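hey can u check if this looks right to u? its 468 residues, i copy pasted from the old doc so theres a chance i mangled smth
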Amino acid sequence: MKKQVSRWFLLVIVSSAVFLSVLDIFIVNIALPSIKKGIHGTNSDIQLVIVLYLLGYASFLITGGRAGDHFGKKNVFVTAMVLFILTSAMCGLSQSSWQINTSRLLQGISAAFMIPQTITFIQVLFPVHQDRIKAFGIYGIIAGTAAVIGQFLGGLLPILHFLKAGWRLIFLINLPIGLIFVILGTVFLNDTKTEKNGKFDISGVILLSVSLISLLYPLVRGRELHWPLWSLLSIALSVILLYSFAVNQRNKLRDGKAPLVDVRLFAFKDFNIGLLTVLFFYMVQDTYFLINVILFQTGFGINPAEIGIYFAFQGVAYILASLIAVRLMPVYGKKILQAGVLIMIIAMVFHLLFIDSPAINRYALFAILFLYGVGCGSVLPSLLTIALKSIPLQFAGAASGVFTTFQKTAIALGISIIGGIFFYKIGSNPNLNTYLSAYRLAGSIIVLLLFVVSFFLYLLPDKPKPQI
């Protein structure tokens, strides 16, 4: 890195990637009803707006890290951010559901190439352990701030009309922000050394991507089309492809090649339990926002800007709780996460009991959302640490990549499955009662999944097992 530039300033530049990628998850969550109206789409169309972004992200995240090794971190970082800007513009200018969902898939892929470069840059910029901890802390705060800002803007921008329809601004806002950091990255970042020895696992990327698409797309579309034969065959095909992917990766490792996923990780029992914890927890995450936003905005008719304020307030609770939880983790370990999940369960039960009318007391609503934010903030920052606690150091990088890929796939599964049940229950002639009925059913599933998360957290060790 250039000596005359503060490394903390460079940290801000590289953290712009996580800011934009997280912003585009949360800003879309709140604006879904406005997007649906703007593109004249269906319920499955707006599910895909979330799912395809996450699918592109999950499928190419590990490949994005390898690309940085091969072509240089700076080159990939700047190029991916340029592509993120372009695909954001494509989303904002879309005229149909097909156009916006194709653009969202490409946007997710570009995000998958941005994020791994950021992690490596932080490790290079901050070689001293204590400084690196502070840097990753700032990185986490930036991500949390992006979530809060995204939720606020997701409610505000759709009701504004500046040159373009308001919902389009949630994507077009990425252009000035991204352009600034493309220029800063080009001017101030130095590149890292490239490694030309390894080859890309192209077959692995194709198998993983096609298998996930074969699973998630029919889960979303099949419900509206009354489960045609092609949707059932596609789901069956996804199982075969996922098995083929596992065999492909094992064979490459045996032959001394570089697979996309190091299957030796799955020999560690605690890692598998950690992945199951991640699966059920992240199935809840975005689904929670989906059902609440649809109920508040479409079912109750609450102004989008007001909804944005509610969830931004919840985001503040998340940030405050995460700062406290990270400090308590060294003392109390996984008990902090277990307490956080319990708080989420209690808060979700309050959601189901008290959010039953457009006339709900706004102070009570703030309190319920705040409590859920506290629970979530107590879990998320340390879930990766707990899940990977027993993994040997030489597998840490590969395990982190698998964790993140699994995380994004789990969110997409939650939107596809629980979201699908939610929209099915609403039906084709929705009224307040059908919205409430669907909300209670989906919310009850979320409570059940949180209990499953609590069970797997119980199975995880508080201290890493000694490695032989």
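The domain at 1-197 is CATH 1.20.1250.20 (Growth Hormone; Chain: A;).
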